[in-house]
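Re: the pair you flagged

First of the two:
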Amino acid sequence: MITTELVRAAHGDAWQVEGALRVPFGGGVAQVRGARLMASGIDHPQWNNGDVDDLSAADVAAMREWYAALGVPWGVRVPTGGPWQHGRFLFRKRLMGVSLDGFGHPASNGLSGQNRMAIRSAGPDDLDAVLHVDLAGFGGDPDLELRWMAPHVHASTVEVALAELDGDPVGTAYAIRSDGWAGPALYLAGVATVPGARRRGIAGAVSAWLLARGAAAGAQIAHRQRAQVLRRRRVEIPAHLHPGPSIPHVGYLDQVIARQLAL
């Protein structure tokens, strides 16, 4: 059963995976009273954050101390249902989750036929192509985006998908495989399509391909942001990730605090 608590826990699990990947780059993970923390080592609050699971017990001083030692800006996500007096509210973030029980297996090479499109796993040699699609879809600072994406193409816990149309890169997304508080789960993120290839079903096809592969590898649930708020743009991910019943939406409130603003 998909619940708010389960999806929230899975989201935190995924960010723990991200932090663990980035220990060699100045990042890391930690747990303090009432919260789990991660850092990427990148000087941007979007990529250094904690997940508060106990509003009344959360040790904000310990959070501040840990991030100060790493020297990175940071924030936290907190659930609805209780007071949070620290920092400045920035935005509301909604998540959605779906059970992967009985999810179909992926096609061997994405789509075929008139779309002339193939989907495959991206490796280190594909990093430039993935970065090209991501920047075309979202914008952003190329150097920061490269630092964020580079560990993904080397990690066994992250699968990066690359869609090609007539051999040209046109779409990408990635899925983080976690097995923490929520059990085996998959976080779908970074779904992007180059402007000239939109409205062809590429984002949905890439998403479904990653979900099917994650299910085949043992993930029991998948989750994603219902609407991503990234780099000052609101990016909608297709609601129908695969044929079948509609995906249940699970929402909760994120309040983000930044060290340099309020703590």
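Second of the two:
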Amino acid sequence: MKRLFFLTLFLTIIMIGCKENPVQEYGSTLSNSLKQSKDVAVISEISNIKKAVQSFSEERGRLPQNIEEVERFIGRPIDKEQISYNPETGEVTRK
């Protein structure tokens, strides 16, 4: 009985002493990986939109008037919550 008590006490002290929670670490790692993949996707999208703005400008001799005009040019929607477009400079940036 004493052995069981001391074993339980020992394991409890070890568990409390552990600063890292493996489940929490795993969740954090997954969360960080997801955030990084989303960041890479937005950076890639910005690069693609910059190329589209350049192509638009070369074809039409002017910059697109707004981001909707860029959308029509590339034929697909742009995530306006993540990406902004300055029609005066043609600059495409992340919000």
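Residues 43-95 form one domain.

-B.
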